[in-house]
Amino acid sequence: MGVIKVGTSSWADQMLVRSGWYPRGVNTPAGRLGWYAEHFGLVEVDTSYYAVPAPETTTAWAAATPPGFTFDVKAFRLFTGHHTPVDALPRDLRPDGGPSRVRWRDLPAGAYDELWDRFHAALAPLAAADRLGAVLLQFPPWLARGDAARRRILAAARRCRPWPVTVELRHSSWFTEDAVVDTVTFLRENGLGYACVDMPQGHASSVPPILVATTDLAVIRFHGHSTAWESGDKQDRFRYAYGERELRHWSVLLRELADQCAELHVLMNNCCGDQAQRDAAHLAALLDVAPATARA
């Protein structure tokens, strides 16, 4: 069975900080990350989706965590075709005039290449410290299956190399009965990991949780099953507590998935207060997974 690492999709969002999960005296960015790493061996960086971090920031992340700790990093949203506020771009790369939100093709080629160079520079300290897991390419819900979409995925993945790449697809066309085998084959043949998602079903944006590993590193992200998935705000969409029976069932499935790969990353993304941390700790105990500090 492959190595299993369990963590959450955030360690510093304000709802978590206000929840009381961190002791009162743990009140600095480095202190919170260090405390988090005492409990989990894995975390997903979500802030990199909203803005490319500075290398000084990621260097500090590596310094605050022990050997064996792993960061999965979500790629900047512009890279995966999302509409991006111009204010999220570095000042020197912002286009003059134009709309307040842009997509990658709205930038001059030089600016787009420079953004990728800065993303690589940001991840380099994590890679050098052996803290980097996978780069998550989370594509938008409107990216339907097709040749153009496959070319877009491969183009973004090539930009991420030599680091491991995990792809999250959020349009149901990739997972219809006659398409799912082709989707899995496409990812496997191109050395791309598949990010499985557990999420509410029955909506236009729903994709099924297909437990398959397409590379040596498999990733599964748990969104929960909120009844307000399409009607609520961010808090309501992810407000969900996994029950004992659910987590025990998932622990069996995750062990089976770990048999297909060298390493399995399990991320709780039901980020509402400290619910993700509590559910991740419970699941880690069921899987007998220790934090990085305990393995070092």
Q: Any overview of this molecule?
A:
- This protein is α/β, with parallel strands linked by helices.
- It has one domain (3-295): Protein of unknown function UPF0759 (TIM Barrel, Alpha-Beta Barrel).
- Helices cover 37% and strands 16% of the residues.
- The protein has eleven helices and ten strands.
- The protein has helices at 14-19, 29-39, 47-50, 55-63, 109-128, 147-160, 180-189, 234-237, 244-258, 275-287, 292-295; strands spanning 3-8, 42-45, 70-74, 84-85, 101-102, 132-138, 165-168, 193-198, 217-222, 263-268.
- The strands form two sheets. It has an eight-stranded parallel β-barrel, surrounded by five helices. A two-stranded antiparallel ribbon has the order 4-5.
- Helix 9 (244-258) crosses helix 10 (275-287).
- The mean pLDDT is 91.
Keywords for this entry:
globular; eight-stranded parallel β-barrel; 10 strands; two-stranded antiparallel ribbon; single chain; TIM Barrel; 296 residues; alpha/beta
- Write the CATH homologous superfamily: Protein of unknown function UPF0759
Topology as H/E string? EHHEHHEEEHEHEHEEHHEHH
CATH fold-type name: TIM Barrel
Number of strands: 10
Largest sheet, if any? Answer: 8 strands, parallel, barrel
Low-confidence parts lasting 5 or more residues at pLDDT below 50? Answer: none
Q: How many domains would you count in the coordinates? A: 1
Total helix count?
11
Largest sheet strand order: 1-2-3-6-7-8-9-10
Taken as a percent bin, the fraction of beta residues is: 15-25%
| Average pLDDT metric | 91
The CA-CA distance between the termini, in Å, is 20 Å
CATH class identity: Alpha Beta
Shape: globular
Question: What is the share of helical residues?
Answer: 25-40%
Class computed from helices, strands and strand pairing: alpha/beta
CATH architecture: Alpha-Beta Barrel
